[in-house]
């Protein structure tokens, strides 16, 4: 991590949260849960189309608070644009595991958190990891939180080692 990355993260953490923008921590937490649900829906449907299209289909059937939609779209855009790279990084962090062997929910939690870690610079890495653990607690099995924590921690360490 460079000094510029540290500065950007500090500035982002000092920005005021507004209810309308969806930037409040609770709104982002809920947006992550929605992104996970959309990702699960998309993957369960065979991965046809884009995640953005899956989100639009979700909006046809579910009520999502408008203030949460921008962050959901941001996460899904990062996943759409970088899913092969995200999966590649996760595979490297998954000691002795294959992505196909993971439950769809654990895989989704890892992908959402990894998208934040790797591509959303304004989210502190520890927040991404903690939120991934929270999603695993909420949606995964009994071993999911510890597993997700280990994989995301390994991903973060690899990320930091590659930066210098």
Search tags:
164 residues, mainly alpha, N-utilizing Substance Protein B Homolog, Chain A, 7 helices, globular
Tell me roughly what share of residues is in helical segments: over 70%
Overall pLDDT score: 87
C-alpha-based Rg, rounded? 15 Å
- H/E series, N to C? HHHHHHH
Q: What's the CATH topology label?
A: N-utilizing Substance Protein B Homolog, Chain A
Strand content: under 5%
In the CATH hierarchy, the architecture is Orthogonal Bundle
Main sheet, how many strands, which sense, barrel? none
- The number of distinct structural domains comes to 1
CATH superfamily: NusB-like
Structural class designation = mainly alpha
- What best-fitting shape do the alpha-carbon axes yield? globular
Q: Could you describe the 3D structure shown?
A:
Helices cover 73% and strands 0% of the residues. The protein is mostly helical and 164 residues long. The chain has a single domain (15-163), classed as N-utilizing Substance Protein B Homolog, Chain A (Orthogonal Bundle). Helix 5 runs antiparallel to helix 6 (125-139) and helix 5 runs parallel beside helix 7. The longest helix has 25 residues, at 69-93.
Task: Summarize, please.
The protein has one domain: Orthogonal Bundle (N-utilizing Substance Protein B Homolog, Chain A), CATH 1.10.940.10. The protein is 73% helix and 0% strand. It is globular and about 40 Å long.
SSE arrangement:
Layout: H1 3-14, H2 25-44, H3 51-61, H4 69-93, H5 104-119, H6 125-139, H7 144-163
